[in-house]
UniProtKB/TrEMBL annotation:
One Pfam assignment: CO_deh_flav_C
Signal peptide feature range: none
Record keyword Isomerase present: no
InterPro entries: CO_DH_flav_C, CO_DH_flav_C_dom_sf, Diverse_Substr_Oxidored, FAD-bd_PCMH, FAD-bd_PCMH-like_sf, FAD-bd_PCMH_sub1, FAD-bd_PCMH_sub2, Mopterin_DH_FAD-bd
Name of the protein: FAD-binding molybdopterin dehydrogenase
Source taxon at top rank: Bacteria
UniProt-listed PROSITE patterns: FAD_PCMH (PS51387)
Location of the FAD-binding PCMH-type domain: 1-219
One of the record's GO molecular function terms: oxidoreductase activity
Length: 325
């Protein structure tokens, strides 16, 4: 690990003022510290933001509000989260080991770096780590990589399970920076790689995530998160699906779906949602709609299996929503 300085911010204003070039915010540090040990991340200064009052979890109007510094374990166990947005609780439990959930913050989880072994290999070309150097995964091992939203410069998947749930639920986030406060959908936090895969999110310099707002919906309580992975214990998703349905009179009135493990960012499945509206919540309808999820897929040799696995995962996740009705 390279030398760095550590400062502790007591207020949001102090944190923003300290966030000059070469500085990084740190809360739980469950990803950043690992990357610093491997010298993939090389910040000159760390700004400890744990003292900031951003860990509250509460209901505001009809929305669940989750502070950016709330720990994953606290959010997953919170009674209002479990009652109003069980999809969030389930995605958090599936997303990390108990030890990591005790340390990792919500904001840090949403901003964690991509899942790609070549990103961590300093002797391998990686456009995220060193722009213009190339992408070793394209001609290398890419079984775990994305089939949606890829480019000729990167096909790494985004690793957050929570982000998939939040995107499905139309969650928004509030950020604050030197230019003031702004609000936008969580989905808009993430960039597609395109020609600039090293630019992963849309936060401006010095901006800090304050909280996440999750609106209520009739679909919220009939929601499940399904994660398919290489092993049952803590592991990143090969494919995951967040599914939520509002069913009335034996027909689907609203649907919310997003997928993980298949896209270069959390992938909203709007075509699948639209195909479900007005249909009976049965397997034939689920299967017909799920096939639309891969209509824009660009698989390579080792990850072609995801073209089949994603629709099957979506169907099973939709079926699981009936188990909580």
């Amino acid at each position: 690990m390279l030398p760095f300085t550590l400062e502790k911010a007591q207020t949001v204003e102090e944190a923003m003022a300290a966030a000059t070039a070469g500085a990084r915010f740190i809360a739980g540090g469950t990803t950043l510290v690992d990357l610093m040990r491997e010298e993939v991340e090389r910040p000159e200064r760390l700004i400890d933001i744990n003292a900031l009052p951003l860990a509250d979890i509460h209901v505001e109007g009809d929305a669940l509000v989750i502070g950016a510094l709330a720990r994953m374990a606290d959010v997953a166990a919170h009674p209002e989260v479990q009652a109003l947005q069980p999809l969030i609780a389930e995605s958090l439990i599936e997303g990390a080991s108990p030890q990591l959930r005790n340390m990792a913050s919500i904001g840090g989880n949403l901003l964690q770096r991509v899942r790609c072994p070549y990103f961590r290999m300093l002797d391998a070309p990686c456009n995220k780590r060193e722009p213009g150097s190339g992408c070793a995964a394209i001609d290398g091992l890419h079984a775990g990589h994305a089939i949606l939203g890829t480019s000729n410069h990167c096909l790494a998947t985004h690793p957050s399970d929570l982000a998939v749930a939040l995107v499905a639920l139309d969650a928004t986030m509030r950020v604050m920076g030197p230019q003031g406060e702004r609000n936008f959908p969580v989905e808009d936090l993430y960039r597609l790689p395109g020609d600039t895969p090293h630019l992963e999110h849309t936060l401006l310099p010095g901006e800090l995530i304050i909280d996440v707002h999750v609106p209520a919906g009739a679909y919220s309580r009939r929601a499940r998160y399904l994660k398919v992975r290489d092993r049952a214990s803590y592991e990143f998703a090969l494919v995951s699906a967040a599914a939520a349905l509002d069913i009335e009179g034996g027909r689907i009135r609203e649907a919310r779906l997003a997928a993980g493990g298949v896209g270069t960012r959390p992938w909203r499945l709007r075509a699948v949602e639209e195909a479900l509206i007005g249909k009976a919540p049965d397997r034939p309808a689920f299967e017909a709609a799920a096939r639309l999820a891969v209509q824009d897929a660009r698989p390579l040799k080792h990850n072609h299996y995801k073209v089949e696995l994603l629709p099957r995962t979506i169907v099973r996740a939709l079926e699981m929503t009936g188990e909580v009705a």
